[in-house]
Design brief:
alpha/beta; binds phosphoric acid mono(formamide)ester; Rossmann fold; globular
């Protein structure tokens, strides 16, 4: 089956998922991001790679980090950035997603950055671009439902590579609400493609997908066992807004069993790093002493996210 993210020459034309993204494409994105990191330290934080291009940010779901860092990244590449105010747009009057997209294409959009509560929405837009013969318009998935959050996955890989270098020697624990997490799925596919030594999925049975074992991870229901001798701990937010029904007794019970405290973190390697995609629920999945502690690289993830998003957009635009 053709990979909808790649053109006939194997070049990236959309970024929809880390699933099926070849290792060399991923590595190229991470290497390109490295070259963009210093742009943020310049007096004039701009390069002209997307000059004259129009990037439309379409966020149908809330966001702080992804929306803002995509906007910063596009501006640092000198693009014109248009943030659609979804609440005031005609989607609020019942216009369909694809009618909205057609109108924005008529305004000469070059790239759509899309966050949507429905899994598959960015994919639908990418297919639509092909159907209407506009394969020059690129789509970036900024998080769709429970499905994928590929730029978060890539910035997580960038962070791990920055602090730990060689993926093959690493044990990575992904802890918490994996069932509802598009970040976990994107991280697991990316870690597999980059050859991580061992990936662990740690959480209560009710918050693990039934087919998790088929994703090539080791499953742990006990946090202490799952953390033992890890190099990287990726904590996930408890996603109450995506839960249907009572999957947990209470937030405090969850913290007792799965909250990352300094005592639990001490079971990982002494130089283990702690990551979290944000937003964090302090006192639910992570103790403030860990979130603000010396092993946390959570704010570095955010900074690296700008460089990774610059890399993705610049590669899509053909640079
Ligand atoms: N990590 C992440 O997607 O955060 P936001 O929801 O704030 O964009």
């Amino acid at each position: 089956m053709l990979n909808p993210q790649l053109d006939a020459n194997g070049e990236l034309k959309h970024l929809l998922s880390t699933e099926g993204l070849p290792r060399e494409v991923m590595t190229h994105i991470l290497d390109t991001a490295s070259s963009f990191l210093e742009v943020s330290d310049r007096d004039v934080k701009k390069v002209p790679l997307l000059r004259g291009k129009s990037v439309f940010n379409l966020f149908f779901e809330n966001s702080t980090r992804t929306r803002t860092t995509f906007e910063i990244a596009a501006k640092r590449l000198s693009a014109d950035v248009i943030n659609l105010d979804v609440g005031r747009s005609s989607t609020a009057k019942g216009e369909t997603l694809l009618d909205t997209i057609d109108n924005l294409v008529a305004m000469h959009a070059d790239m759509f950055v899309v966050r949507h509560a429905s899994s598959g929405a960015p994919h639908l837009i990418a297919e639509h671009m092909q159907r209407i013969g506009r394969e020059d318009v690129h789509v970036v998935n900024a998080g769709d439902g429970r499905h994928a959050h590929p730029t978060q996955g890539l910035l997580d890989m960038y962070t791990i590579r920055h602090f730990k270098r060689d993926f093959s020697k690493l044990t990575v624990a992904i802890v918490g609400d994996i069932l509802h997490s598009r970040v976990a799925r994107s991280d697991i596919f990316a870690l597999a493609a980059l050859g991580a030594g061992e990936v662990r999925a740690v959480g209560p049975q009710t918050l693990l997908p039934s087919a998790i074992g088929r994703m090539g991870v080791r499953v742990f229901n006990d946090l202490a066992e799952g953390l033992r001798d890890c190099d990287v701990v990726i904590m996930l937010r408890l996603q109450n807004e995506r839960m249907n029904g009572a999957l947990l007794p209470s937030a405090s019970e969850y913290f007792n069993c799965y909250g990352l405290t300094p005592e639990k973190l001490a079971l990982a390697k002494p130089d283990a790093i702690v990551m979290h995609p944000g937003p964090m629920n302090r006192g639910v999945e992570i103790d403030s002493l860990v979130a603000d502690g010396r092993q946390a690289v959570i704010l570095s993830q955010v900074t690296f996210g700008i460089a990774v998003r610059m890399a993705v957009m610049s590669i899509l635009a053909g640079n």
